[in-house]
Write a sequence for this structure.
């Protein structure tokens, strides 16, 4: 499942309009530079006229040194010849991630714990919260905690402060049950993906209080959904989902409690997939290798 | 899980406004008539002012003979004293069930197969279809198959024919992927519960083509929902749900195929629960013991 | 699912040889003392000659005051007349629990976190470890941490120290990935149940290194098992189990990592069930209401 | 998930000792012959010195015509240069499969039903049973049913008759709850893979009566395992497994009933994976793409 990070391991991500010869071209370039492909996943949305997605993991000694030469070939072959998007990632460079939380601790703690035990190949550059309840994690997990309050009617100022902090320093923002809606302007200015965990099985129960709605509707399973944040609330591309069985004996509080276990697990899976470059966007859906 | 049907086994279902002493009253009546309670499930929606639901299974020799005397006591104690609804069921009497299908066979075949192997304590009184594709099951499973076509614009006539056939002869109608919407008038005139299988995890993807919508939304799990049919399409009380994991590699056709496995399983569970008197309605939700 | 602990709530647990009239007797006693039964679960292993298990939850004002009188009746009716075992529990009194851990933190942290957020109705009286790696949880979670090293060949001394600490002060010991085998003498002297989490789907892969064995055998699911500890290693009554899907891409290390999520969840469910008096032993199996 | 079978689609399966350049060589050969790779899965068991597994799906017009030329290149490059095993499959040619059953119908019926609706890309060449109970499926599903009784002490004669029937005419034998153990001699003489469904979560509960053993052990989940048959009973490479939750309320008969749902699903998945050339053996385990 996971790829052990070793010196000289890279990932090549390619996407675009499908066509004959892409796989051969990619593997020829990599092999031509002395790389050994250790894993290759590919997906086409249709036999003709579809979209093409590929993730290759390869070993290459002195990857950093050879990177420029490799990029020249990739640009010429994949970019110019096939008109594809591509990106080359050095596995040794962890993703820089900011975690946003409010008062609920389960998703944040779980990510911090998984990171500390070495499961998540990322660097936690910031923990940001609009409250101070979770400030203690700064010391405990040795991560920089920043309190940016969001006063009623002054979200713009808060977002400006968040941008000051994060702009250009992160590859991903994770909303670990952060209870504020981010504006479209903020998302555009931030310029990196934002992953949110929604506490329902989307598209069921969009918006607020999904567990109360689930109780009222009498569903027999509740779920959680990790998705990329877009301007349209709860409408972004879904990355991962899971559910847990409930029954008439569960109160809304019980659903909250049971749901927390699913939320933290689903969010952790999504963050791990992102940090391992397994997620590729396809319109409003995702390919997760 | 299942209760073996033996001579002299009964079920007592009680519901209504909760209050002290109900359990004692029920068990005193049953014990007073010589019954041995072998299983008892109870649910209260709240510690005070809640709704009360109980299902008791008991052994009682010569249940048929003693039934009248037992009902007198139940009426006096539960009905008059506590103001509760109750019903007494002789386990030896199977539910009379009509199965409706159109062209898709998986749900119908699965119910017929489970019935033949003795899993579902019911009598299949009719198989009704608006097509003749599945007429062969009549001979194969020894059930009466009736073809009632539904001509465009003539649903009223079809429903009249269905009512002629079923009225007063069934305890339950099961829509095993029957592709017609039943009118409120039909439901009212029929007067018995109708269970439908919807091919999505409700309330996600109500209405037509849920698998196509699921593909477009990019969900990572698809599901099925068995529910009681009400006038509001796809809004009735949910009985049972389950899901299965899918991925970007699954086409809409694949979702249809994978979903079929969940549909037949979820519907079978719901029908079994009904036939064993495990389902009690609580407003627009269900208690399933 | 969970019962909110309020003043005046009790639980009555009854088990023994099944026979007619038990439910009526129990409910008559409780109702006679003014209790309102809010939940009642019952299980019989067979229609005749079987074993009987019952868990009743009831509301009773001034439970503490009335307890003695209630116990007199329970002793006479249930103990003497029916020959049953019973125990009366005041829901307001949390279970006293000692948590044992070694170096692995996931199960311990998860229990501590669930306890802090109010999910587990227990008092953590001790955290005991044969290492000091996890000593920091003492301050963080405000629980007494005791380091009792287990020197090679000197397990007897360690167990003596453990007994000094725990004897008579706990209702349950939880082995949260405690990497030492407890002797039969210790278990006997301790005199309270011990719950262990085994990192496999028992009875598959008993003994050491189950994830390595799972990898070698090529299973497609791995699991965890919470069970009561008996003298026979990995053979005690199973309380709860769950699994997670794995594939050929998962290394043994990946199985360890994925398994950790299942372990902590399964152990938490088992501990919660114990603290809510939902578990009753039936020979080498359990009834979990 | 599934690949639609169209004219001109092929699959290339490659396995052997891993080494640099294999992916590039494979894709160069395919592209050199005008093939378009539409899907490629690859697995290596280790970064160096590991075993290599690859499954490529490609489109190639007039595949049948070009097959010989393609095979020449594959033999030279993959076989001689890299020392790899490979096989080239025309997707248009369905696998020839014999289904063995005894009296239990659920696995056999499920495979026949899935085949009829077009889910399983195979040709059912024979249904073989040691009993006549299921002879009716011959007419119903238009498959040749052959009754080969297995008299006590005369298994050799039965196996000889089976070999007469099957030798050289099948690519796979599926034991759909066939209640006879096949001899090592039979397996060797047959010369094609045999897939069995075992009614437990292997390696738990090997041998006979797994559901009874599961009940006695008090497990909380039961499962089913599809595996390749080897001379060592229940020890062959596992292809697919799944489980379902059970509880103390389930009798052994209930486990049998619930388990049947898992058995038929797990076996169908394994057969589908085989027919789509997704399964590659790796010692006593499998890679399932």
């Amino acid at each position: 499942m996971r790829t052990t990070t070793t010196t000289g391991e890279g990932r090549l991500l390619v996407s675009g309009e499908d066509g004959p010869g892409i796989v051969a071209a990619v593997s020829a370039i990599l092999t031509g530079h002395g790389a050994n492909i250790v894993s290759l996943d590919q997906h086409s949305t249709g036999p003709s006229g579809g979209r093409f997605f590929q993730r290759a993991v390869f070993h290459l000694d002195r990857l950093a040194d050879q990177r420029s030469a490799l990029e020249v070939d990739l640009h010429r072959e994949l970019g110019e010849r096939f008109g594809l998007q591509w990106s080359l990632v050095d596995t040794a460079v962890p993703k820089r991630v900011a975690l946003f939380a409010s008062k609920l601790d389960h998703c944040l703690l779980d990510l911090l714990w998984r990171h500390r035990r070495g499961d998540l190949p990322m660097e936690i550059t910031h923990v940001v919260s609009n409250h101070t309840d979770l400030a203690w994690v700064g010391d405990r997990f040795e991560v920089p905690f920043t309190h940016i309050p969001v006063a009623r009617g002054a979200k713009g100022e808060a977002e400006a402060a968040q941008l000051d902090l994060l702009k250009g320093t992160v590859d991903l923002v994770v909303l670990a049950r952060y209870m504020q809606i981010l504006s479209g302007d903020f998302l555009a200015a931030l310029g990196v993906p934002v992953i949110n965990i929604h506490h329902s099985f989307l598209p069921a129960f969009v918006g607020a209080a999904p567990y109360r709605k689930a109780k009222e509707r009498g569903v027999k399973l509740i779920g959680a959904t990790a998705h990329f944040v877009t301007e349209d609330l709860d409408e972004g591309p879904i990355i991962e989902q899971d559910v847990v069985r409930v029954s008439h004996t569960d109160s809304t509080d019980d659903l909250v409690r049971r749901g927390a276990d699913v939320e933290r697990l689903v969010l952790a899976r999504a963050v791990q997939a992102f940090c391992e470059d397994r997620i590729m966007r396809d319109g409003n859906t995702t390919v997760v290798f």
